[in-house]
Write a structure and sequence with these properties.
Largest sheet: 16 strands, mixed
Order of helices and strands: HHHHHHEEEEEEEEEEEEEEEEHEHEEHEE
Oligomer: single chain
Shape: globular
Number of strands: 21
Radius of gyration: 23 Å
Number of helices: 9
Distance between the termini: 37 Å
Helix content: 25-40%
Length: 388
């Protein structure tokens, strides 16, 4: 069963446990149960409160890194497939385990701590919006959103068309040789879609900046970028697509990939779904990721499950055994909230979750509260996270 199927089933189990499952979803879960006797046994075991508590206590006896190492060693002993296939199997199993444990946490603590602790019913933090800022070559700023359609003619031969699904740079005829640059910026709580003149599509996440010419000239198609974006680069072998990421250059051949390169983070991650990428003479294949450490200047390549890194582009957050501090950094870019920690230990609490990107933040806070692993309060306009 692939990772997406694991996630789907675990999410249905979570809904079943909390009583929020719809009739249609319940039917899907029943079909999965009936498909294999082992499915029924697994579902019964995972939804049993006593078994959940026993497993949770056993897991808490080991630090997270050791837990996952033991899981991976066990799976490798029982699998005789290729290393790459094994890694995918491990990723799928790990994601499913985390999600079901989260579901069990929600179920158990919902039943036993309802009405206890700080109530955050008044909290209202909506998801971000489809919007951005377009900075023209004369520094004029145009606000882009999904509510209006406009056409701008900054350069003869190129139309800038704002539509409900994003902005497009459309070449017409007789484009001058002069390079004129524009900049697209998404602030906190924004995402936006761009289509460049040669057909490349860029899906920008919050707090990101793309600098590009209105029309490409010369031997390569060069843009500058920081932040996070999913790229679908138009094929043109005669004019390679190049992305400047600070002091690094990423050379692209018609491909789709995710760039995570925020300037306030030490690690830069480039995850390839299709095609080919090259950085500093290192080329990667689909299913691989380049990680560049800005502090040590070390560049490494890892095999990954790409779904974990492109989930945001598909409307979800996928966290697998991640520190609360790292999770909140990601969420705060999208939900535009401030946060702090009542104690240092809260930073390192680990969670696994599969969340809708477009839910109100209240839903996520309630989920974190019900796990019983952290306390969440509101103080001085900030969300304050502490250990119970």
């Amino acid at each position: 069963m692939d990772i997406q199927k694991c996630i789907d089933i675990a999410r249905l189990l979570a809904k079943k446990l909390t009583g929020s499952i719809t009739p249609e979803e319940n039917q899907q879960l029943d079909e999965w149960r009936l498909a294999d006797r082992r499915h029924q046994e697994l579902a019964d075991k995972l939804t049993d409160e006593k078994d959940y508590l026993v497993h949770q206590q056993e897991l808490e006896q080991f630090p997270p890194a050791e837990r996952w190492e033991q899981v991976e060693q066990t799976i490798r002993k029982q699998n005789h497939c290729s290393p790459f296939a094994t890694r995918r199997w491990i990723a799928a199993a790990a994601a499913a385990v985390l999600l079901v444990l989260a579901a069990g946490s929600i179920y158990y603590h919902y039943r036993h701590t309802a009405g206890e602790g700080i109530q955050l019913a008044a909290l209202d933090v909506p998801a971000g919006t489809h919007s951005a800022q377009l900075v023209l070559s004369n520094n004029e700023i145009i606000y882009l959103n999904s509510d209006s359609k406009c056409i701008y003619n900054e350069l003869k031969g190129v139309q800038i068309v704002q539509e409900s699904d994003g902005v497009k740079f459309l070449p017409q005829k007789d484009i001058p040789d002069t390079l004129i640059y524009n900049q697209i910026r998404t602030l906190q709580g924004m995402e936006y879609h761009i289509t460049l003149g040669e057909g490349t599509k860029i899906f920008m996440n919050a707090q990101s900046t793309l600098t590009h010419p209105l029309a490409f000239r010369g031997k390569e198609r060069l843009v500058k970028f920081e932040g996070e974006a999913y790229f679908e680069v138009a094929k043109d072998s005669k004019h390679p697509f190049v992305i400047e990421l600070g002091d690094k250059r990423l050379q692209v051949l018609g491909t789709s990939f995710n760039v995570h390169a925020y300037p306030d983070e030490d690690l830069m991650q480039i995850t390839l779904e299709s095609g080919a990428l090259e950085m500093d003479g290192t080329r990667i294949r689909p299913g691989e990721q380049i990680v560049y450490d800005r502090k040590s200047h070390e560049l490494t390549v890892h095999a990954v499950d790409t779904k974990e890194f492109v989930a945001w582009h598909e409307g979800h957050f996928l966290f697998r055994n991640e520190r609360l501090e790292d999770i909140l950094r990601t969420l705060s870019r999208w939900y535009s909230f401030d946060y702090d920690f009542a104690d240092q230990a809260a930073r390192d609490v680990r969670f696994g979750a599969y969340l809708s990107r477009y839910d109100n933040m209240k839903t996520i806070i309630n989920m974190l509260q019900r796990t019983g692993l952290v306390n969440v309060t509101v103080k001085d306009g900030k969300l304050l996270f502490g250990i119970p």
